[in-house]
């Protein structure tokens, strides 16, 4: 099988605080998984890349990572909103 790289990108509203809170430390991330989150003009852009995604397990890891990012985004957004009140 050919080696493939799968990429998922999500862009959500938010500031640099949220982007920073979503950026993983990558200490416990497998070498075939790369996650980046950045702040761009009032939005948070996250990219998840999985190398050799011919494996169903790696595609599931991609999906689970996106789910985790969305949960973390929601928690960070709600925390910032509560702090502003």
From TrEMBL:
Could you tell me what this protein is called?
KEOPS complex Pcc1-like subunit
Traced from the root, the source organism's taxonomic lineage reads: Archaea, Thermoproteota, Thermoprotei, Desulfurococcales, Desulfurococcaceae
């Amino acid at each position: 099988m050919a080696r493939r790289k799968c990429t998922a990108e999500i862009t959500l509203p938010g500031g640099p605080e949220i982007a920073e809170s979503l950026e993983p430390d990558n200490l416990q991330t497998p070498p075939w998984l790369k996650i980046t989150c950045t702040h761009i003009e009032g939005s948070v852009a996250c990219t998840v890349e999985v190398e050799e995604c011919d494996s169903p397990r790696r595609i599931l890891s991609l999906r689970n990572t996106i789910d985790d990012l969305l949960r973390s985004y929601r928690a960070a957004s709600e925390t910032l909103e509560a702090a502003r009140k």
